[in-house]
Design a protein that fits this description.
Helices cover 39% and strands 12% of the residues. By secondary structure, the protein is α/β, with parallel strands linked by helices. Strand 1 and strand 2 form a beta hairpin.
Length: 503
C-alpha cells in the first residue's frame, strides 16, 4: 500500500473525529513515526521544531545569514568564501540528547548550509560521520543546481554530549535529528527537498526515510550496505571468491600471506612507525593485533577504492619487504588502527556493534598465519573502548529492510559491481514504489549516477529532476540526454574527496 493511499484512508477514517477536535493528534500519528519525535523545539519547549513564525527567519527580504540565525536554536558560527553564486555557512543546532525524553538535556549538532537560492530545490546530505567543513557539493545538488544542507551524525565529535550516554546514538535518534533540522529549515527553503548520502550516509538517508518518509520528496543513496542478518555473511565470502580475475585474486591472497609470513620483519617496522607517530593501541590491545587487522582489511580496502586495472600494482609473493609494506600502508594505513585514528570512528563501530551489523568473510586462505581468532578479533567490539557497553539489537535492520521492501517510495540505490560493501545491498520488494537499484559495471565504492551506462544514467537523472520538482520537461530532456547538467566544478571535486571516507 502506498504512502498516498495510506494518507487517504487515514483522512477518510478521521472525518468523524473532526467535530471532536481529535483529528490533528490522530493525523500526526498517521505519519508512521513513533515516540515523541519532533515534539521538542529548539528553544526547549514543547511543540513542532521550527514552527514559530513571524520573525526574521520568515522574512524573504532578509539576508540569508540573518534568516538562518533567526531560527530558534540555530547559531551561525562562520561564513566561508566559496564559488560564485553560492554562500556557505557553518552552524550549530540545538538537539535533544533523547528525542523521546527531551528533559534529559541537549547538545549542539554541527551542520553546514550551501546556499544557492530560495527558488532552488534543497538537498539534505549526511556522510554518516563527522561534518567536513570545506564547501562542497554532492552529485544530486549538482544535478538540480540546488542548495545543500549537510549534517554531522550524532555522537561524532564535536556533535556529542558530554558525558555521552551511548544508548542514545541509535538510528532512530539520528533520524529524528534530521527531521527536526529539515522541519526548521523549511521555513526558509520552500521548494522540494531531496536527501542523499554515500556509504554510511546512504544507509542513514534510508533510515531517516523509514521513520519520516514525507520529510523529502526522494532519496539518492549511494553504495549503501544492508546487513539484515548479522549472523549470515556468506555473501561477502562469495564476493571475494568471484570479484575481478583469478590472477588478481591470487595475487591479493599471496600478498596477504606474505605480509603475515614476514611478520617477524614487517611488524617491528609497523610498531616503530606508530611509536614515531605518537600512536598507541590501548583500544585494540597491541601492535600485533593492529597489524593483523590491517592485513585482514587490506584486500577489502583494495576492492573498495581500486579498480580491476590496479591489480598490476599488487606486489604478490615476489614483492620485496618495502613493496609489501608500502602496499599495506596504501590500503589500510600504517596508523589506521591506532587509538588516535580510531577515536574519530568510535560512534560508527558502536553503531555497527549495536544495530548496523558488520561484515565477515572466509579467511581460510590465511590458515596457519593468524595469531588470533578471526571472528573475535574482526568485530566491532575490538574497535570500541571497553568502557562503552555494547549490546546488539538484531531487530533494527530487519525493520529497515521490511520497510524498504514493503513501503519505500522514491529511492534510488546506486552500487558498484566490484565494491565489497555492495555484497549485501538494499533490495526492493512488492511494496517499493517508484524506486530503483542501479549497479555501475566494474565500479567501486565511489560509484555514482554519472558512472552508470548512458541510458541508466539518463533515467536516474530524470527521476532526480522529477522528484526535485523541476518539471516534466526537464525530466523528459534528461531521458533523451538533452538536459544541460551543470558542469563539474571545484565544489563537486571537493564533494567527491569528502565522500571517500571509511565505513
Amino acid at each position: 500500500m502506498t504512502t498516498t493511499i495510506r494518507r487517504l484512508l487515514v483522512a477518510v477514517l478521521l472525518i468523524p473525529l473532526l467535530g471532536l477536535g481529535l483529528a490533528p493528534t490522530a493525523l500526526a500519528r498517521s505519519a508512521g513515526t513513533t515516540g515523541t519525535a519532533g515534539a521538542f523545539d529548539a528553544a526547549g519547549t514543547t511543540g513542532t521544531a521550527g514552527a514559530a513564525s513571524g520573525g526574521v527567519a520568515d522574512d524573504p527580504s532578509a539576508d540569508i545569514k540573518d534568516r538562518l540565525a533567526g531560527i530558534p536554536g540555530m547559531t551561525v558560527t562562520e561564513e566561508q568564501p566559496t564559488t560564485t553564486g553560492h554562500r556557505y555557512f557553518l552552524l550549530t543546532y540545538t538537539q535533544p540528547i533523547d528525542h523521546a525524553r527531551p528533559w534529559l538535556g541537549t547538545f549542539q549538532q554541527r551542520l553546514s548550509v550551501l546556499h544557492r537560492g530560495y527558488d532552488r530545490p534543497t538537498v539534505f546530505y549526511t556522510n554518516g560521520y563527522t561534518l567536513r567543513t570545506t564547501p562542497s557539493r554532492t552529485e544530486p545538488a549538482r544535478l538540480v543546481d540546488g542548495n545543500q544542507v549537510s549534517i554531522e551524525y550524532r555522537y561524532f565529535t564535536p556533535s556529542r554530549p558530554e558525558p555521552a550516554d551511548w544508548s542514545k546514538a541509535g538510528i532512530k535518534q539520528a533520524a529524528t535529528d534530521a527531521h527536526r533540522l529539515i522541519t526548521a529549515l523549511k521555513r526558509i527553503y520552500h521548494q522540494e527537498w531531496l536527501s542523499t548520502g554515500a556509504s554510511k550516509g546512504g544507509m542513514s538517508s534510508t533510515y531517516h526515510r523509514r521513520f519520516f518518509p514525507d520529510d523529502v520528496a526522494g532519496t539518492i543513496a549511494y553504495v549503501a550496505p544492508n546487513d539484515v542478518d548479522d549472523r549470515e555473511d556468506s555473501a561477502y565470502s562469495r564476493f571475494f571468491r568471484n570479484v575481478g580475475t583469478p590472477e588478481c585474486r591470487a595475487a591479493l591472497t599471496a600478498t596477504q600471506r606474505e605480509l603475515l609470513a614476514r611478520r617477524d620483519r614487517l611488524e617491528p617496522r609497523y610498531a616503530a612507525d606508530n611509536t614515531a607517530a605518537g600512536s598507541t593501541f590501548t583500544t585494540i590491545g597491541s601492535a600485533d593485533k593492529a597489524y593483523e587487522l590491517a592485513v585482514l582489511d587490506s584486500v577489502w580496502a583494495f576492492w573498495q577504492y581500486s579498480l580491476a586495472a590496479d591489480c598490476v600494482n599488487v606486489p604478490g609473493a615476489a614483492g620485496t619487504d618495502d613493496a609489501l609494506y608500502a602496499w599495506l600502508d596504501t590500503q589500510s594505513g600504517i596508523t589506521g588502527n591506532s587509538d588516535q585514528a580510531l577515536a574519530g570512528y568510535t560512534a560508527y563501530y558502536y553503531q555497527a556493534g549495536t544495530e548496523l551489523g558488520s561484515p565477515s568473510f572466509d579467511v581460510s586462505a590465511l590458515k596457519g598465519l593468524l595469531h588470533y581468532d578471526y571472528k573475535e578479533l574482526y568485530a566491532p567490539r575490538t574497535y570500541v573502548p571497553r568502557s562503552i557497553p555494547m549490546r546488539f539489537d538484531p531487530s533494527a535492520m530487519r525493520d529497515i529492510d521490511r520497510w524498504v521492501r514493503n513501503s519505500a517510495e522514491r529511492i534510488i540505490y546506486v552500487y558498484g559491481q566490484n565494491d565489497p560493501w555492495g555484497a549485501e545491498p538494499f533490495r526492493l520488494g512488492w511494496g517499493s514504489e517508484d524506486s530503483y537499484v542501479y549497479t555501475v559495471p566494474g565500479g567501486n565504492h565511489g560509484s555514482n549516477i554519472s558512472k552508470l551506462p548512458a541510458d541508466e544514467s539518463a533515467a536516474a537523472t530524470a527521476k532526480v529532476l522529477e522528484w526535485a520538482g523541476l518539471g516534466a520537461d526537464a525530466s523528459a530532456r534528461a531521458l533523451k540526454g538533452q538536459y544541460q547538467v551543470p558542469p563539474i566544478g571545484p565544489l563537486d571535486v571537493e564533494g567527491l574527496k569528502q565522500d571517500r571516507v571509511r565505513l
